[in-house]
Amino acid sequence: MAAMSISEIEEMARKCRIEICKMTHRAQAGHPGGSLSEIDILCALYGHRLRVNPSEPKWEDRDRFILSKGHASPGMYAILAEMGFITHDDLKSYRVKGGVCQGHVDSKWCPGVDFSAGSLGMGLSFGMGCAVAARLDGSNRNAYVMVGDGEIQEGSIWEAAMAAAHHELGNLKLFVDCNGIQNDDFCEAQMRMFDIPAKWNSFGWAVKIIDGHDIPSIVEAIDWLDTITNKPAVVIAQTIKGKGVSFMENNPAFHGAAPNDEQLAQALSELGVQV
Amino acid sequence: MTRMAATRDGYGDALLALADNKKVVVLEADLGKSTKSLHFRKLHPERTVSCGIGEQNMLLVAAGMASNGYIPFASTFAIFTERAFEQMRNGVARPNLPVHLCGSHGGVHTGTDGSSAQSIEDLAIYRTLPNVVVMHPCDDVSTKALTMQLPDLGKPSYMRTARNKTPVLYDEKENSIKIGKGIVLTEGNDVAIIACGVLVHESLAAAETLRAEGINATVVDMHTIKPLDTDLIDKLAKQCGALVTAEDHSVIGGLGGAVSEFVVSSRPVPMEKIGVQDRFGESAGADEMLEMMGLKSHHICEAAKAAIARKV
Question: Would residue B272 show up in a list of annotated catalytic residues for this protein?
Answer without folding.
Answer: no
